[in-house]
Amino acid sequence: MPKVAVLLGSLRRPGMGFGIASWLTPLVRQSFQTARTSTPDASSVDVVLVDPTQPPLPLGPIVDGSHVPADIRDPTKHPNPAVREWAMFVTSCSGFIILCPEYNKSYPGELKNTFDHLYWEWARKPVMVVAYGGGGGARVEEALRGMLGGPFKMQVADKGVGIKWPRGTDKVPPEGPAPKWLQAYEPEVLAAVEELNGLILKNKA
């Protein structure tokens, strides 16, 4: 069964990330189910939320100077056990969704660190970006597209989602129904997932 990982780009608790993820993850799961029912011989997709505070993350800083990640093409050959587990997880995924806040016009350092521990494992993997922030996350989406499609050679979906939360609103609760302003982004998520699904199927062919 193909697996798509939702990578949460921020460790902040409490924060918007976990609340938005609790709304996004089941919506993505439903979107893939809808897309796959209209595709002959397409299996269902396992959508998993990756909590950056739980194994196979966090990884900590890169301190091993004996090699660079690009030296290692076999995910089972990473010398650090935590990195090796992360490499094997990334390799097992058919695609990714990056859920990321905008911090000072860019992405959080912990998300960059998550990517920098690996290299070849990311290549050609389809990915879609869901950014959020007070301004809608446009600048972090642009920064992520440059990183993912550039040095990491991922297949970045043209359609992304930029979520702008209204001023003065409370944080999105991790449980219960999502607020109406967030639910309004469902059509954009559905369209982006449809494109991501097409990239995954094309990769499989």
What is the total tally of β strands? 6
State the CATH class. Alpha Beta
CATH superfamily: Flavodoxin domain
SSE order: EHEHEHEHEEHH
What radius of gyration results from the CA coordinates?
17 Å
Q: Calculate the terminal CA-CA distance, rounded to whole Å.
A: 15 Å
Structural class computed from helices and strand pairing: alpha/beta
- Secondary structure tally, helices: 6
Average residue pLDDT: 89
Low-confidence runs of at least 5 consecutive residues: none
**CATH-defined architecture:** 3-Layer(aba) Sandwich
Report the helical percentage: 25-40%
CATH topology annotation: Rossmann fold
| Shape designation | globular
Amount of beta strand = 15-25%
How many domain modules?
1
Largest sheet: 6 strands, parallel
List keywords for this structure.
205 residues; alpha/beta; Rossmann fold; six-stranded parallel sheet; 6 helices; 6 strands; 16% strand
